[in-house]
Amino acid sequence: MNKLIIISGPSGVGKGTIVNELLKKGDYALSISCTTRPPRSGESEGVSYFFISKHEFHSMIKQGGFLEYDKHFGNLYGTPKDFVEKQLQTKNVILEIEVNGALNAKKSYPQALLLMILPPSLEELKARLNHRGTESPKKIKKRMERIEYELSQRDKYDYTVINDDLQRAVDEIEEIIKNS
Ligand code: 5GP
Predict the structure, then answer these.
(1) Distance from C-alpha of 154 to C-alpha of 160, rounded to nearest angstrom
(2) For residue 87, which of 29, 101, 115, 166 is within the disulfide window of CB 3.0 to 4.6 Å?
(3) What is the Cα gyration radius of the chain?
(4) Distance between CA atoms of 62 and 45, rounded to whole angstroms?
(5) What does the pLDDT look like over 127-169, one tens digit per residue?
(6) Ligand 1: nearest atom to the Cα of 70
(7) Are 31 and 87 in contact (CB under 8 A)?
């Protein structure tokens, strides 16, 4: 039986790199979300997201078409149920999503495995964000608050994995998936 693996973690923790390593192994597919926000340059339909209209999004909500959905920065984002279920027929499916979406997805799909990636040191992660130098202090403060919030939800996850070393973390995640 293939598994739905939901991966969250604070911004800057290296989730994307971990997910890419897992995808390289070939046993995993990535869930692609629907969004009402317009594509950014370099993003393409069905790869980054399925870009749909508000009208389409609302009719999918009515039809129960989402495992979960949420609003971020005025745009709607959701995990399409059909797409995930279809992919689960052949592979484990990875859903990389922020904490609230992850917890909601687990409610509608309780068999899902919830994994949170943690930094080796919170202080180091904060320092890294501070030194990016591209964001205003107000934005940095918001990001920090978001990190604190995401970390405060860690007890609701099935497992937490520390990204101290990429290969070690990927191996640990594979071990968890195999044994759960
Ligand atoms: P962005 O527009 O920068 O790609 O994403 C904005 C936010 O939407 C991020 O926090 C991202 O995790 C979240 N997001 C992306 N897809 C989904 C989804 O399917 N469901 C939920 N709840 N959030 C999502």
Answers:
(1) 7
(2) 29
(3) 16
(4) 23
(5) 877 776 677 888 888 888 999 999 999 999 999 999 999 999 9
(6) 22
(7) yes
At 22 the three-state DSSP class reads: helix
Q: Whose CA is nearest to atom 2 of ligand 1?
A: 37
pLDDT in tens, 162-179: 999 999 999 999 999 999
- Numbers of helices and strands, H then E, in the chain: 7, 9
Work out the burial of residue 18: count CB atoms within 10 Å of its CB; fewer than 13 is exposed, 13-18 middle, 19 or more buried.
Answer: buried
The residue contributing the CA closest to ligand 1 atom 7 is 72
Q: 12 falls in which pLDDT band (50, 70, 90)?
A: confident
For residue 158, the one-letter residue type is D
Ligand 1 centroid from CA 151, angstroms: 17
Q: What is the pTM of this model?
A: 0.92
* Ligand 1 atom closest to residue 49's alpha carbon, by position in its atom list: 16
Q: Sketch out the chain's domains with CATH numbers.
A: 4-179 (3.40.50.300)
Tens digit of each residue's pLDDT (9 = 90 or more) over 23-74: 999 999 999 999 999 999 999 999 999 999 999 999 999 999 999 999 999 9
Contacts of 113 (CB under 8 A, 6+ apart): 3, 4, 5, 6, 158, 159, 176, 177, 180
Instruction: Return d(Cα 113, Cα 102) in angstroms, integer.
Output: 10
